[in-house]
Amino acid sequence: MIPILDLTQQYRSIKAEIDAAISGVLESGSFIMGAQVKAFEAEIASYLGVKHAIAMNSGTDALHLALRALGIGPGDEVITSPFTFVATTEAIGIVGATPVFADINPQTFNISPAGIERALTKRTKAIIPIHLYGLPADMPEIMKIADAARVAVVEDCAQSVGADINGVMTGKFGKIGCFSFFPSKNLGAYGDGGMACTDDAEAAERLRSLRIHGGAVKYHHDELGVNSRLDEIQAAVLRVKLRHLAGWTENRRRVARRYRDRFDAVGIASQADASGHVYHQYTVRLKNRDGARERLSAQGIQTMIYYPVPLHLQPVHSHMNLKHGAFPHSEQAADEVLSLPMYPELTTASQDEVIEKVVALSSPSPAAVA
Ligand SMILES: *Cc1c(COP(=O)(O)O)cnc(C)c1O
Asked: Using a CB cutoff of 8 Å and minimum separation of 24, what contacts does 254-258 make?
């Protein structure tokens, strides 16, 4: 089988470094908020070109604590895309705010700036663009709209670590950038992990306090916080992996170029390209997507659908009373998208097998031609 992702190959390629890093933590006897977390925060802040990185337990926590840090709560509206993972709107709901959706651009699958403008109201307090599949959203345009309306931008960078627009990393455009280190992400821990980053000292201080029970000083609590720390073992793993991230991203881009060249040649639509795309996923559109996925699976090719149901049609948001047809581009994407095997270690031979089988699906069968 050709899997969509193979984390065991990656582990084998860095096994000596990982094993040493983990046993180093075990030997140190320090497991929470120690030297590894501190060093990781400094290293990733430098990599992203931001002033502050605050490591947390998950990307979901980073998103919801980012909204808390900005004082967003009941009565406030937060604009986001319905074509994303549920964690984005979960974060909005956890703080008691109301999600408001704006449809996607069908080429990029990212939130449409014009849609954001239409969704703005007096109650809008923040916008959460998602850099879906690793492709940066249209941040220059989104920041222009947000600045004019005086609303904060929180970037959902869960899929986009290392992605940039003209050298500026995703996570640095908005007030706060939120990252996930879930194992399958481009920079994945061996368990859960996440992080918020910001250039704003005040927001950084709030985030540091909120992640540890709402107080900067131990056993002194200014507000209701949570326990959302990244542990030392995961920080040590992430420090090793961060050193390899740029190389892995180059490999992902090489894989993506080969897919794109072949698919363009036969008229299979891929997500739009950009030089700063980090290809968390390589995603195509297929008209008979579900049938295609079944046939590929029978032929030993694993694929995934991110995401089969847009958020406005999910039961969790049924109280919003949004019907089919409300966000047609997101709905069509949910019906057509298919993500193909994509990881830095994918061999050309395996990739060519994937390409051949995907191309065969979409070309007319010999019977139809005859
Ligand atoms: C993975 C992901 C998250 C959540 O990250 P966790 O670390 O799993 O909590 C949020 N948003 C998007 C778009 C994601 O892909």
From this structure: 255/279, 255/282, 255/342, 255/343, 255/344, 255/346, 255/351, 256/282, 256/342, 258/348, 258/351, 258/355
CATH T-level assignment (fold) for domain 7-101+110-239: Aspartate Aminotransferase; domain 2 (3.40.640)
Q: pLDDT tens digits for 291-318?
A: 999 999 999 999 999 999 999 999 999 9
Given ligand 1 and candidates 65, 182, 211, which is best to mutate, with the most ligand atoms within 8 Å of its CB? Answer: 182
Measured in Å, residue 60 CA sits from the centre of ligand 1 at: 6
* Residue 137 beta carbon below 6 angstroms from any ligand 1 atom: no
Q: 130-160 pLDDT, tens per residue? A: 999 999 999 999 999 999 999 999 999 999 9
Which one, of 200, 321, 229, 196, lies nearest residue 37 by Cα? 229
> Which tens digit of pLDDT belongs to each residue from 179-189?
999 999 999 99
For 175, list phi and psi in degrees, rounded to 5. -65, -45
Q: Which pLDDT score is estimated for 217?
A: 81
In the structure encoding, which two tokens stand for residue 3, read together? 């899997």
Q: What is the largest CA-CA distance in the chain?
A: 78
Residue 123 has which token pair? 């109650």
326: nearest Cα among 119, 121, 51, 89: 119
- CA distance linking residue 25 with residue 9, whole number of Å: 23
The owner of tokens 């969704």 is: 119
Chain centroid to CA 131:
6
User: Are 69 and 210 within 8 A, CB to CB?
Assistant: yes
Q: In whole angstroms, give the CA distance from residue 108 to residue 322.
A: 23
Is 159's C-beta closer than 6 angstroms to any atom of ligand 1?
A: yes
Where are the chain's structural domains? Answer: 7-101+110-239, 245-362
- The residue among 161, 150, 124 whose CA lies nearest residue 279 is 161
Q: 245-362: which CATH architecture? A: Alpha-Beta Complex (3.90)
- 């030297």: which residue's tokens? 35
Protein residue closest via CA to atom 14 of ligand 1: 158
Q: How does residue 370 score in pLDDT terms, banded at 50, 70 and 90?
A: very low
